[in-house]
Amino acid sequence: MKLLILNGPNLNLLGKREPTIYGNTSFEEYFDQLTSKYPDVDMVYKQSNHEGTLVDIIHEYGFDYDGIVLNAGAYTHTSVAIADAIAGVETPVIEVHISNVHAREAFRHTSYMAKNCVGTIAGLGLKGYELAAQFFLEQ
Ligand code: DQA
Fold first, then answer.
1. Which chain positions carry the site (Transition state stabilizer) (predicted)?
2. Residue 84 assigned to a binding site
3. What is the ipTM of this complex?
């Protein structure tokens, strides 16, 4: 089982960025815990602040990985290019948000990703990434 976890802009600052919304744990720290919990899963973590790079990474992994767990950050609410990349590859994608985007500003209520994803998890903190991975593991 090969899974890609892909984070978009500003998520490299997790642990430092608005901790009341996103918590105090860096993604690297969380990813270490996650990989040690699932030693048999080939899990790769990538992050980029750039829309085109995120598209390139989806193309790169989207034909031979079993699942992509994607938090596109703010691009969730704006990016036709990332939505098209998800539609264009074979690997299923689950959309994850750390915060409950529906309880925040109105512009965060719209996801360009959602219709091309298997499903969405929002508001469950970092745990959302593990829940998405578990879904793929049970397929
Ligand atoms: C986010 C929610 C987005 O609205 C925001 O722009 C982010 C993080 C989340 O994980 O809660 O960067 O995707």
1. 17
2. yes
3. 0.99
